[in-house]
Amino acid sequence: MSITTFTEEETRAIANRRTLRRFLFFPVQVLAMAAIAYPWPVDHWAVQAFWVLVTSYLMFCWTSCFHETAHQTLFLSHRVSIGLGRLLGWLMLVPYTAYRETHIRHHAYLNKPTDWELWPYSDPNASLAFRRVFVWLDLLLGAFTAPVVYARIFFHPDSPLKPDQKQAVRWEYVGMACFWSAVLGVVGYYGAWSTFLLVYALPYYLAGVYQNGRKLTEHLGMISYDPLLGTRTVVGDNLGTRLCTFLNFDIFVHGPHHRHPRVSHDQLEEITREYVAAAENESLPVYRTYSAAFRDMAPWLVRNPGVGVNVGADPPGGAGKEVDNFAADVTAEVVGA
After folding, report:
1. What pLDDT shows up at residue 194?
2. Which residues contact residue 203 at a Cβ distance below 8 angstroms, ignoring those fewer than 6 apart?
3. What are residue 233's DSSP bridge partners?
4. Does residue 321 belong to any structural domain of this protein?
5. pLDDT tens string 237-284
6. Cβ of 261: how many Cβ atoms within 10 Å?
7. Which residues, including other chains, have CB under 8 Å from residue 94's CB and lie 6 or more apart?
8. Where is the Fatty acid desaturase domain (predicted)?
């Protein structure tokens, strides 16, 4: 498995930030799940629906935490990031190594045909008809399509994975199978299927909708291969946007994160302001609210669900630099290389 290599400055930034409070979603989620299983404060469908929605959003925060573990920017110890990442991967049916290697190439080859994470939207061989069907499956059934998208880098005949990485993915699938066999065995033993469906399965399904809605909002319809121009970035000052950004480790500040995948998440807003100021007459796709970014993306769900070449970009020239880890500055080290 590849390990992210940080400079001394990047390491100090990770060490000096205060990340622990962002994990508040874990204990709150446990309490919300308990309120579903043991109806509180009253046994009423509206109250239950409220707790299901709370649980589903906090499960969505799992995906942002998983994302940080893949970058290995969450803790100073990469072993802790890998351990937590593998546990979250089991829960989400996505092997940690497959996710990390897919995501490395997503940063390096944004919107290009070799962007495994944005398949089929980045794939010029995927027909418009197929993409129009798949995008709705992806949005409404994200809990099921995400494991397929991330499995492709392992099962595809042109997989870029090295033998040791493939072996790691195999063992992660074995661990996943053992984990869920144990969980479902306990649920079956106690005949708690209805509780499991309400406490876990339904919120998890909704979390998949939120997650893939986020992915599409930040990427669908973007033509540029440049990290700042090829993604939608959200930096807001209203309470709702700031709270959601906080709980999701600043993943909504997407363009600067794409350009600097090794930068600590708490630095991304300041970097965004610097890039916006430096852009002068060049407008960057930065939005004050997530709803504004969604409105910009929404027509592409019907018109042409694609990115890069599939929405009019010139084909990327040459084979490009082979990348197998996160760069400090993707624009300087990969796009412009």
Report:
1. 97
2. 33, 52, 55, 56, 59
3. 286
4. no
5. 899 999 999 999 999 999 999 999 999 999 999 999 999 988 765 689
6. 23
7. 66, 146, 147, 150, 151
8. 44-286
